[in-house]
Design brief:
263 residues; ten-stranded mixed beta sheet; mainly beta; Jelly Rolls; globular; 7% helix
């Protein structure tokens, strides 16, 4: 009996410690898209232009409601081809919803079509370690239309980036990417970055704890970007479907959670 009591006591202690260390999430901001019209200007801004965005993309990002609007409980980002030219939208939360650590969850349905390149991703707000890639980039979801049903999560830093062929990332199959909504989630803390598809974690990037921004610049605030690119070094690597005239990404919600620990 004494041995049983000892074992039960130790289990209670260990169980209590695990509960004490359990991370709780609390919602700190969200856009549920429960309105109609242009995206909420308190949360979202537009980046505009047709200069290729560093990747030789061919779309012109605009602030037109034709390319980004909220209706039927969803944010609709639409890339449109007219008279041989593409327009699209690139929405950002910079200087409106910035965060350092936490959980960001985006529920989205992705576009189809060869040449499309939708992304859900994060960039540094202040670029304190210098220009790209020194201050980092976190790609929660990228999908290239010539490889349908495969989504990618990637990080870029000075030491790890695609320009020098050292980027770090993972891919996962999502066969119904354009037919069903899925949750694309990043959980980011001082130790690591985890990326999930729905409830499945498929990518982890860990802090090497060397205090070196070249490998871990992820200790400064970042913001969220949502966009559909067309063409470009990756999206257009196998060309663009000449018959494609529209590509649509739908977002049901975006939710940001902060963290604390149980006492």
């Amino acid at each position: 009996m004494k041995m049983l009591f000892f074992l039960l006591t130790m289990l209670n202690i260990l169980f209590g410690q695990s509960l004490a260390a359990q991370v709780n999430y609390h919602l700190v901001w969200s856009d549920e898209f429960d309105y109609t019209g242009i995206p909420d200007q308190a949360s979202w801004s537009y980046e505009v232009g047709d200069h290729g965005w560093g990747n030789n993309e061919i779309q012109n990002y605009t602030s037109s409601p034709e390319n980004a609007q909220v209706s039927d409980g969803k944010l609709i980002i639409r890339a449109i081809k007219k008279n041989g030219s593409w327009t699209s939208a690139r929405l950002i939360t910079k200087n409106k919803v910035d965060f350092l650590y936490g959980k960001m969850e985006i529920r989205a349905k992705l576009p189809i079509g060869k040449g499309t390149w939708p992304a859900i991703w994060m960039l540094p707000t202040d670029w304190q370690y210098g220009g790209w890639p020194a201050s980092g980039e976190i790609d929660i979801m990228e999908h290239v239309g010539y490889d349908p049903g495969i989504v990618h999560a990637t990080v870029h830093t000075e030491s790890y980036n695609h320009v020098i062929g050292t980027q770090v990332g993972k891919s996962i199959g999502v066969p119904d990417f354009s037919e069903e909504f899925h949750n694309y989630t990043v959980v980011w803390n001082a130790d690591k970055i985890d990326v999930y598809l729905d409830e499945k974690k498929f990518f982890t990037f860990s802090n090497d704890m060397k205090g070196n921004s070249a490998t871990w610049p992820f200790d400064k605030r970042f913001h969220l970007l949502l966009n559909i690119a067309v063409g470009g070094n990756w999206g257009g690597a196998q060309g663009i479907d000449e018959d494609l005239i529209e590509a649509v990404m739908e977002i049901e919600y975006v939710r940001l959670y902060g963290t604390d620990k149980e006492k």
